[in-house]
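[agent] plan:
  1. take the single chain provided in the ticket
  2. run structure prediction with default settings
  3. attach structure tokens to the ticket
  4. add a short note for the reviewer (M.T.)
[agent] executing step 1
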Amino acid sequence: MHLVADTYGLDASGRQELLQHLDRSMRGGGAFVQRRADAGDPNFILMLKEMGGMKRYERRLRWWEESRHLFASALS
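[agent] step 2 finished; step 3 output follows
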């Protein structure tokens, strides 16, 4: 994370913004996939079926919440 932030020339504010984008992505990704599946998109229906359904996104969010501090630390 630090290397990515350095490569893009992110200052402290930009690094915080990156972390906030990651927060939103991790929290909203599963909801997006679920909305697409509920709308009948066959690709998202298949993806959910093959990837273990919404439990995958729930696990990913738990992992992010438990690991977020490591990413925040890497960005400082």
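[agent] step 4 note for reviewer: The mean pLDDT is 94.
[agent] ticket updated
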